[in-house]
Amino acid sequence: MEIRNQTTPSEFIIMGFSGLLEYQTLLFGIFLVIYIVTLLGNTIIIVITRLDFRLHMPMYFFLGNLSFIDICYTSTTLPKMLEHLTQERKTIPYSGCVMQLYFFVWLLGSESFLLTAMAYDRYVAICNPLRYKIVMNKIVCWNLVTASWIPGLVNASAHAYFTFRLPFCSSNKLNYFFCDIPPLLLLSCADTSINDTVMQVSCIFIGWVPCMFILVSYFYIIRAILRITSSSGRHKAFSTCSSHLTVVVFFHASATFSYMRPTSSYSLNRDQLIPLLFSYINPMLNPFIYTLKNKDVKKALKRAFTMKTSPSDT
User: Fold this and answer.
1) Residue 27: its pLDDT value, please?
2) Cβ neighbours of 38 (radius 10 Å)
3) Which of 116, 81, 121 shows the shortest CA–CA distance to 100?
4) Angle at 62 between CA 57 and CA 64, to 5 degrees
5) pTM
């Protein structure tokens, strides 16, 4: 059903998998596994960083918060997608679309700033190690985490307002997997130049500014690492940063490709796979990236599983 001559449809029809009807069961299985692995992996990170006192350090405090954001981030859209893969009619109410976009954009922006806070933590740890515990105290860590949520909240509010003030009078068929800014702008029959401007400004302050801060931090980090005389010391210092740097590259590369362009340049048939990367694949891989390259986390996991499998003393 198409809705014409109306400015506010009661629902949107999600058309993202309309050309893959024969693969619905397979896709459901794939995305269900992705969701379960994401929930399980990030939950383990949260629990282990909270329960193991050896991980009560700023780096793992931020890692636990990153895992929390990734769980919320994935849960904003993936459960609805799984529901759609089991239904012939794939719809989302107008209000549900508003909430989905709002929380998705909020968490996206918050993750960008949290990754920046994690880069600052690594900068202080490597470039100023003698003052690390003083600079990165609990109050500072909580302030950095809280501050990472605020720009994302402001950004999401702006995008939700400017997106849903538009009339959607041509169709209610959303050629996408979930409610996101670019596909919704393409549905509008009004001028979206203001929205394009808001999106470009948002990409600068939510994407490029944090990314540049991270790059500057790593410039000083790498310079400090190269000054370390022993090869084992250089390896240990770099190993604490490599996981974070890997996550940053995947996150910013995919997010920038999706949003740092005017609406007119989007081809949803071509570009809709990229959001799947930073929406679902990155949150699923983050726990593995951090555990595979982090000896402290691997030791904590080993201790936790050893305690569970060891016989009782009584």
Assistant:
1) 87
2) 25
3) 81
4) 95
5) 0.86
